[in-house]
UniProtKB/TrEMBL annotation:
InterPro entries: NAD(P)-bd_dom_sf, SDR_fam. GO terms for molecular function: oxidoreductase activity. It comes from Actinomadura darangshiensis. SUPFAM superfamilies: NAD(P)-binding Rossmann-fold domains. This is SDR family NAD(P)-dependent oxidoreductase.
Amino acid sequence: MGGWTAGDIPELRGRRAIVTGANSGIGYHTALQLARHGASVVLACRSAERGQAAFDRIKAAAPGADLVLGSLDLADLASVRAFAARFGDDPLGILVNNAGVMAIPHRSTADGFEMQFGTNHLGHFALTGLLLPALRAAPSARVVTVTSGFAWTGRLRFDDLQNERRYGKWTAYSQAKLANLVFAKELDRRTDLTSVAAHPGYAATNLQQTGPRMQGNSLMEKVTGMGNVVMAQSAAAGALPSLYAATADVEGGACYGPRLLQYRGAPAKVVTPPQADRPGLGERLWEVSETLTGVSYAEAPDPAP
């Protein structure tokens, strides 16, 4: 059965895009295809070494690609501000909030936030707000925020967002991914941007093995690696929902994922968990996020006429 593929991406020449976590996995393939179709792409990466390797790979695969490598650590708001200061001057047509961490042992960000909530949600919330003038300066700008099927099991615990009472790595991950989805919906409601969410289904990336590796659990690292080989679709296939969300005709506030049980297959609009649309949830998350990050969207100036 056919479906939307990377070959259906329209010509993007004249559009500037930023992809966070572009050095590997879904982010790499998202950046590669945007560049192949003419976009000027900023690879926003935490590791300079891995970012340069991705830069070189994309240049080899798409010799004419217009690429820039940028340093961005979403777990450090100072880094987020520095990145936005460097790349926020020119119109920005596409922002893909892709980077993230999954089910890792308890860690804190540079600003004292729980790492998964701080990186996956708060870092991207701050980045998007700081880039808002650049997004508003571009015609038909679009923001894509990558969530996960784990959002279905997520709950925003406003009395313990930082998981200080009791930390569960999967509970923290599910909360962060629900926050990504709620943010995408609320951003679409609050601004004139087109904001959508995307999720890759089960795709083979290094995320699954990072947590076990950090814990020193070599057996679980091997098990998750085998799962990637046997059951997962490729990272390139996992990037298709993000690419569809970034370039196709989409509905603001919707989510796009694999159409086969939201597990694998061609991208399509998918059903989202009912808790993501709970009245007042987006507004409350927004207010908390502005307070924690110090980034106010209301204060972000409109582009000069």
